[in-house]
Amino acid sequence: MLAALAAAIATAMFGALVLLGVPSASAATLFSDDFEDGNATGWSRSGGSWSVVTDGSRAYRQSGTSADARAVAGTAWSGQSVQARVKPIAFNGGGRHVAVLARAQSTSSYYFLGLSNAGSVVLGKQAGGTATTLASAAATITTGTWYRLRLEAFGTSLRGFVNDVEVVSATDATFATGRAGLAGYYASASFDDVLVTDVTGPTQPPTDPPTTPPPPGTCPTSGSPTGFASVNAWGQNGTTGGAGGPTVEVDTAGELIAAIGQNGPLNICVRGVITVPAGMHNVTSDKTVVGIGSGAGISGGGLNIGLPADDAITSPPAGAVHNVIIRNLAFRGATDDSINVQMFSHHVWLDHNDLCCGYDGLIDIKRGSSYVTVSWNHVHKHTKTMLLGHDDGNGAQDTGRLKVTYHHNWFDQTPQRNPRVRFGEPVHVFNNYYVYNTDTGVACQAGGGCLVEGNYFERVEEPVTNTYAGPAGRCVARGNVFVDSGTPECSGSVQEAGTYYSYTLDDPNNVKAIVTAGAGVGKIGT
Hints:
Blueprint: H1 2-13, E1 18-19, E2 29-33, E3 44-46, E4 50-55, E5 57-62, E6 68-77, E7 80-91, E8 97-106, E9 109-116, E10 120-127, E11 130-138, E12 147-154, E13 157-162, E14 165-171, E15 178-185, E16 187-197, E17 232-233, E18 236-237, E19 247-250, H2 253-261, E20 266-270, E21 273-275, E22 280-282, E23 287-291, E24 297-299, E25 302-305, E26 322-327, E27 330-332, E28 339-341, E29 346-351, E30 354-356, E31 363-365, E32 370-375, E33 378-380, E34 386-388, H3 395-398, E35 404-407, E36 410-412, E37 420-422, E38 427-430, E39 433-445, E40 449-453, E41 456-465, E42 474-478, E43 481-483, H4 511-518
Parallel strand pairs: 19-20, 20-23, 21-24, 22-25, 23-26, 24-27, 25-28, 26-29, 27-30, 28-31, 29-32, 30-33, 31-34, 32-35, 33-36, 34-37, 35-38, 36-39, 37-39, 38-40, 39-41, 40-42, 41-43
Antiparallel strand pairs: 1-43, 2-16, 3-6, 4-5, 5-16, 6-15, 7-12, 7-16, 8-9, 8-15, 9-10, 10-11, 12-13, 13-14, 17-18
């Protein structure tokens, strides 16, 4: 049993409707902190050496290994789901752990879910200086690796998840309420993306695409986008990728990296899952990168579509990357972004991909990029999902650009950035399915203008907002379906997407069924 649970953790690493009405209440975010403000205001600490550091993004680090170090935040909640990304760094001796805490009465009394260097995940309680193990499961814990821990405490039921797979559970009535927290028991670690909500999460494990290699000759290189990637602008009429160029098949990292980096039009067919070196790998103009069948993907690194970041460039350069298609690929375990579009790249179509479990963003679009369509993707089990516009101060590059269409995507248990928008207008979000997004759906900020229509929101706390954080944006929400969700918080006017391209809306009541049947890999043409 424990071996099966350990295998599940490893696999997860790669692996009544209300229409325009007032719905019932949904998940409430009780507390969140991604430490991007550079401070740890609101946290109370005991032991150790805590500070906000840069670990990819900003994170809260406990750097010492000579103390039982704890940090708690929030108030005396009863039912609570405490989630954080946790990266163990070092352990001082055997039987040590790094953990998230729930129902902390103080820094010496709480429930904890820990990653132990004894080769296990431990669910336990600390009461008056005495630690008691309530449940454990075998697992390989590697220092320097990020894990997503979630400890749920509702009634007397305790459940522990690692990378969204439930691995331990127990029943205990010692603590009825308390704060959330983080801990390094004689261990150092980085903590990030802390999220506390008042609802339990789904119990099903994350779904990964089949891995059986398909037969030859099933590489879908034809097709054309709807939305901004179809527009004639910036010297490019629509997005055709490698059309007109040769077709090659790749099944190794070396072959893939060489193919995406060469000059001229090229259709690149990816066979099987290719593990690439850590980091971002550059895709040049006029490329189609598409998976064969339903078992193709990229793990260990991500794809970068764009020139190197340069704040001094404020208009599209002659060499901007353009005309790129990425389709039918599963992305897992990226050490940075899974797909990054930057530096005035344009006419990019990201379609029918399956993205999960990376380090930073799944799909980020920024620094003046434009004329992009993101369609029919299944994104799941990830916090920093999709960013559009990287910084509140980047108006010189982004104003008047970042024209992006998001349609028929499945935002599946992705707490925030679905997308988070800055500056872009219009940003067209239509016919997407949102489910269990515990923070926000569409967040439109920093002068951005978002048109959000015909979507299906289920268990989404803030489906659409232009007041999420930082400078406000503008948004128009119309014709959406809300199921056990909050209501839009929108104001202002937004350019109509229909002035740029034609599109047909599906009935929003049917969007859940349409998107779950058609989004993700192996479904092009269904």
